[in-house]
UniProtKB/TrEMBL annotation:
<dbReference type="InterPro" id="IPR019984">
    <property type="entry name" value="Ribosomal_uS17_bact/chlr"/>
</dbReference>
<comment type="subunit">
    <text>Part of the 30S ribosomal subunit.</text>
</comment>
<dbReference type="GO" id="GO:0022627">
    <property type="term" value="C:cytosolic small ribosomal subunit"/>
</dbReference>
<protein>
    <recommendedName>
        <fullName>Small ribosomal subunit protein uS17</fullName>
    </recommendedName>
</protein>
<comment type="similarity">
    <text>Belongs to the universal ribosomal protein uS17 family.</text>
</comment>
<dbReference type="Pfam" id="PF00366">
    <property type="entry name" value="Ribosomal_S17"/>
</dbReference>
<comment type="function">
    <text>One of the primary rRNA binding proteins, it binds specifically to the 5'-end of 16S ribosomal RNA.</text>
</comment>
<keyword id="KW-0689">Ribosomal protein</keyword>
<keyword id="KW-0699">rRNA-binding</keyword>
<dbReference type="InterPro" id="IPR012340">
    <property type="entry name" value="NA-bd_OB-fold"/>
</dbReference>
<dbReference type="GO" id="GO:0003735">
    <property type="term" value="F:structural constituent of ribosome"/>
</dbReference>
<dbReference type="GO" id="GO:0006412">
    <property type="term" value="P:translation"/>
</dbReference>
<keyword id="KW-0694">RNA-binding</keyword>
<keyword id="KW-0687">Ribonucleoprotein</keyword>
<dbReference type="GO" id="GO:0019843">
    <property type="term" value="F:rRNA binding"/>
</dbReference>
<dbReference type="InterPro" id="IPR000266">
    <property type="entry name" value="Ribosomal_uS17"/>
</dbReference>
Length: 77
């Protein structure tokens, strides 16, 4: 089964070797038929501490690294 890859914006790079990425998804509301935007934050492993706040990056799911980290930084998108 292929690993999921998501694209989002780095919102925090304060932690060592960790970035927080906000990923936005859009969908049509089933009743109102209006486009709705929902965002979710993911903690991703950044071995080189290369990503900075505001960067658009891609993250890939991986085995658990810590309590919150289940994603790893693939490359700047």
């Amino acid at each position: 089964m292929p690993k999921r890859i998501l694209q989002g914006t780095v919102v925090s790079d304060t932690n060592e070797k960790t970035v927080v990425v906000s990923v936005e998804r859009r969908f049509t509301h089933p009743i109102m038929k209006k486009t709705v935007r929902r965002s979710k934050k993911y903690h991703a492993h950044d071995e080189a501490n290369s990503a900075k706040v505001g960067d658009v990056v891609q993250i890939e799911e991986c085995a658990p690294i810590s309590k919150n980290k289940r994603w790893t930084l693939v490359n700047p998108a």
